[in-house]
Specification:
The chain is an alpha+beta fold. It has helices at about 1-30, 75-85, 205-210, 265-310, and strands spanning about 40-55, 60-75, 90-100, 105-115, 130, 135, 155, 160-175, 175-190, 210-225, 230-245, 250-260.
Amino acid sequence: MRRRSSLVLLALAVFFAALSPLLRWYAFPRLAKIPAGQYQSVVLEAKNATLLDYGTMTAKKVSKVSIVQTLKGNVEEAKKVDQATGRSVVVWDSLAYIVGPDGKMVSALPERYIFDAHSQDPVHYAGESVDGDPVTRQGIEYKFPFLTEKRDYLYFDSQTRTSAPIHYKGTQNFRGLEVYYFEQTIPWTRVVLPKKLPVAGVTPASVEAMGMQRWYTTKRMFWVDPTTGAPVNGEEIHQEEMRYADGKTPPVTAFAGDVKMREDYIRHTVALVKSQRQLVLLMTSYLPWGFLFLGAALLSLSLLLEARSRRRRPPAAARTYDPEPVPVG
């Protein structure tokens, strides 16, 4: 009976030991994915900012500029890209809608971002764009990969339409979470004007006809939960100038401000990430290590039962032999 039990325990030990890496390296990449229909929004604010009045082309101080950033999963487009590429992808239609203190639109920047649902690697397909212009992204945008590493990543900048390294700067504690802090600086770069401007009749073409060019620089900062790859806080020290092509006339500040996530959105994001990270940890840490230790325990118990079974097994009965008669004479 003990021998049969030890064999059953040995089989279970092999099963759980094999299940441990299978769950981590096979199941996790296939199960941990961004939902195709995900919708989220966040509000960022720049208080005491400088803003350009396009009507008079002069800069003025304002109490607050708000940026409403929305990400909407386009399920139908994702299905088309899935079928065409054979990959599980997410298509995000995003919009950065900027309003001044009076609630009126300052600019709007739409994007279509297509990426792998698990790795966050960009997937190049028709429709990938910024403000209606086709782009070919390299690197990540908005979200970092699951199980973010302590290293630099390529991060796409929608203003310059280029990618540049975003640097890992260390580990910090943020609202009870251990997070990785990343930082990226985009130097002064000439960029295109948004196609949608707040003043009727003022277009990118008319501004350029005045001999003006838009230049931009920013210092971008993210506090990222390494388990889910989700930023729990973001900030940008952002500056834009309208410069004259002659190089002689002084530039005009189009925007200058320290853009930060609004407090209520920080609290909501932190709470959401704290709940979601447990699911990722379950597949990458808790269950794989638990199954491995369980397999080791079952193996030890199996060997113990087998050893006891051998010790208690009675020795084979000694055989006796009758001597053959010796013939006489």
